[in-house]
Amino acid sequence: MGEYWLRCVSDGSVQPVYSLSCPHDSSLLRADYLARQIQPKSLPGIWRFLDWLPVQGIIAEAEGAPVTYRSLGLARELGLENLYISYSGHWPERGAKMPTCSFKDLEAAPTMQRLKERGDNPTLVVASAGNTARAFAHISLITCQPVVLFVPEKALDRMWTAAPAGGEQSSSAHRDTGPVTLIAVRGDYYDAISIAEKVQSQPGFAPEGGARNIARRDGMGTVMLDAALTLGRIPRHYFQAVGSGTGGIAAWEASLRLRADGRFGSVLSRLHLAQNLPNAPIYYSWKGKEPEPVSNDMFDDVLYNRKPPYGMPGGVKDALLDTGGEVYGITNPQAAAAKKLFEQSEEIDILNAPAIAVAALEQAIAEGSVLPEDTILLNITGGGISRMKEDHTLKMLKPQTTVSHWEQAVSFLESKR
Question: What is the architecture of the domain spanning 123-203+392-417?
Answer without folding.
Answer: 3-Layer(aba) Sandwich (3.40)
